[in-house]
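Box 3.1 A note on notation
Throughout this textbook, protein chains are presented in two layers. The first layer is the amino acid sequence; the second is a token string describing backbone geometry. Keep the layers aligned when reading.
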Amino acid sequence: MIKTRMIIVAAPSGAGKSSFVEKISQENPKLVDIVTFTTRTMRNGEKAGHPYHFITVDDFKNKIEQNFFVEWAKVHTNYYGTSYSSLEQTWASGKTAIMDIDIQGVATFKSKFPDAKTVFIHPPSIEELRRRIAKRDGGMPLDIEVRMANAEKEIREAPKFDYQIVNDVFEQSYAQFKKIVEELLG
């Protein structure tokens, strides 16, 4: 019996949610990192299926029409969505689904899966978040002001989450995150 079927991790873009989820998924065999679909272009070091299933806008829209996604959203200028089949396969194998999703998707997941547990990752500050995004993306992205405005809105949603962590020093913050996940797994 799975104690917790789903753990949802959300944060502003660049706060570290993907790093936390990727690391814990590699360390804990009870977890499956759910790979979402996106229309955004690949960054350096990415490939098909890691960290996303990269598809065209037309393919994405067809999947919406086919009710393929549990949840989907347009984030900044790209589409992101999570398939029903990825969750069903995870639960059929007796494992817990863990995923990092945009704040927009959390309410949808919670409405469909009220037993899902949620973790919000805070950046140490908006200024640090801006610096991290520029470093990660190889320079300041054109949509940085949109991202910063979205980040401030997302941070205002944090009190609705089951758990909150500030990602200031990665190893210390990750240790807090790992403890929460281990408690949820039982």
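The helical segments are 17-27, 57-65, 84-92, 103-112, 126-136, 144-156, 170-185. Residues 6-185 form a domain with the Rossmann fold fold (CATH 3.40.50.300).
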